Amino acid sequence: MYEQIAANKRRSALLIAAFVVLVLAVAWAIDVLLGYGVAGLVIALVVVVIGTFGAYWKSDAVALAMSHAKPADPVEYARLHNLVEGLCIAGGLPKPRVYVINDPAPNAFATGRDPRHAAVAVTTGLLEKMNRVELEGVLAHELSHVKNYDILVSTLAVTLVGVIVVMADFSLRFLWWGGPRSRDRERDGGGGPQAILALVGIVLLLLAPLAARLMQFAVSRRREALADISGVAMTRYPPGLIAALEKLKDDTTVVESSSRATAHLWIESPLARTREEGRLSRLNRLFETHPPLEERIQALKEL
Questions:
Q1: Which residues are 122's β-sheet partners?
Q2: Which residues are marked as active site?
Q3: Which of 66, 161, 248, 264 could pair covalently with 220 via S-S, beta carbons 3.0-4.6 A apart?
Q4: Which residues of the chain have pLDDT under 50?
Q5: 130-172, pLDDT tens digit by residue?
């Protein structure tokens, strides 16, 4: 367990370093294509610094806001609070903030930067469709992400990927409508080394969002299986989480407030994966962030 926590902290440091390198590469491409010189690079460095610190301190708030999560009222959601408190005592964790998302699809996620600054969010559909032991299994899975420090890596990915995608998208749109360097190239005939650098810059802007997504996938799949096992160790009752995962497998509803940016946070993919579940299912399967539920259920049955 301690090795897993240490590994996750190393991955967080590597993720931030990779993000800084990627943003600087995108900034270089923007400078080459738009010709803003030193001023452009200074602005890029400011974006890197603000983006990194902002992601570390506020990425959990971004993830909760994107999912339309609201604080769970302690009276109305007393059962939920009691289950979280009991599991935290068993797992030696401080109680996280508890949120509810008004959505009929059963699902849940955890976010934050460490156990003292963590939050757990569940949908109203999960509360309605799960019995006590099943809900306990899902919450134990999410609290395992907190205990294993998975939440820091996963939540950072939401904000960092978003910054890179926005920078690349904005620059490409600006170029489409004609930036200052574009006009200079047209006036100079557009040949020579500058044309090669411009081509490299455009390719980099096109590939940067894909590279950012790959960084996101790198932190996702293996964590889910580990959290399943850690969650069962917390409840000491494998049938609870197994029954919950089987209900999630049979459910075809999708979380309305989810997005591909936050999909890797949830206990199962919140996006449509079949034509019956909704549009873009083929694209969602291409960017799948979770192992199949059948594999996770079978792994738990073999414990």
A1: 100, 108
A2: 142
A3: 264
A4: none
A5: 999 999 999 999 999 898 888 877 777 777 777 777 777 777 7
